[in-house]
Amino acid sequence: EVNTAKDSSMALPEFLGKAELLKQGAEARVYRAQFLGKPTIVKERFKKQYRHPVLDEKLTHRRTVQEVRSILRCRRAGISAPVVYFVDYTSHCIFLEEITGSATVRDHITSAQQPDSCPDPQLERLAQRVGQILAKMHDEDVIHGDLTTSNMLLRLSPEDGESDLVLIDFGLSYISALPEDKGVDLYVLEKAFLSTHPNTEALFEKLLKSYAASSKKSSAVIKKLDEVRLRGRKRSMVG
Amino acid sequence: MQLTHVLELYPDHSVTQMLFKEVKNAAELRQKAVEGKIYAALINPTMLVNPLQVLVAANKAVHLQKIGKMKTRSLYSEIIFNLSPTNNISEAFKRFGISDGDDSVMVVLVHNKQESKLLSDITALVDGRQVQVEDVSSLSDPAKIKKLYKVTPQEEKSSTLLDAVVCRMATKDVM
Ligand SMILES: Nc1ncnc2c1ncn2[C@@H]1O[C@H](COP(=O)(O)O)[C@@H](O)[C@H]1O
């Protein structure tokens, strides 16, 4: 037991040193590795030098807990999200199932979208499913916080052929019942969607329609979305 | 026949699982474990879906031991505690530990690289037939597992039972 402290501080850096770095973000690094014999994504939140260490530790811990809670809440409601294999609250690492054999919704739309932008029934179907899943997520009071088409994965299911839509990256997520928070969540997606995929206003409209039809509490959310849009527009007119 | 996995985070620790059926001396084994004469976790396989479940519990136990934050007194009781969805230690033992009348048992050991002596010692103590560890799924009781872990019907449609269980085990401290 002499080397316990040293062991525990060395285990993770050594492990991550051998892992494949997928993304170096502002708050976290994302790695790919084998863990418990499974293809795993490791998300490591690191220290922010400019923040007070005690505050930084608190915020980082809270974010890690929120991410894990949101994933579990979604999964309980039947929304696909990566399995959590392990959480290290000392180094703020989350070990998640890697969604293998998947493509992002972003790549899917980009490759499926035709240059003449005539409506594609399959893309419309996808937009509807995204709307339904986000409605279900908001009905569980999970706010994703960073909705983009890159944070939605399509995994081909071997059984029924229809691909499974998996939500990822709950790093900015939190729990809230406020229509305003849900409206902003959708607004973030709208901004990202329309800038990533040009000429998809009609497609996004389908998504929202399907959201509105699936959620029990959608009317207040859509109203807030309209307000947030208006604010956004006013701000851009002033600025 | 047993399954040994080197923990990726703690490569000097291996987890070995051994499954026995037709066990006739469960009471004696349990007594020896209580007295500290068996250094292993003795688990009732009906609550196990898959060997991965045990690996998740063992990895977490070794981690908490390293950082000095175990909730129970030994690594082996911590493995049993980690399998349970609740924070009630005695309930964890009741559900996941073996009982005197059990006729099957999953033995879980954490050890250094080559400790075949440790494994053969345990094998010698068990009066039963060793089978493939993967056979554990044929002994599990999905209805009981779903109830204990509170797996919802919606969740069952979009997830395997194993994934639902593992996710709860890994996150129970913040739920
Ligand atoms: N669970 C996962 N399965 C597969 N790929 C993932 C997973 N989580 C993250 N990624 C990939 O890693 C990138 C960065 O992760 P994130 O910071 O969580 O968005 C994502 O855009 C995905 O391409």
TrEMBL record, chain B:
The UniProt keywords, alphabetically, are:
Cytoplasm, Nucleus, tRNA processing
The record's principal subcellular location, in a coarse class, is cytoplasm
Reading the lineage from the top rank, the first entry is Eukaryota
Q: Name one GO biological process term.
A: tRNA threonylcarbamoyladenosine modification
Q: Which cell locations does it reside in?
A: Cytoplasm, Cytosol; Nucleus
Please name the Pfam families in this protein's record. CGI-121
Q: What is this protein called?
A: EKC/KEOPS complex subunit TPRKB
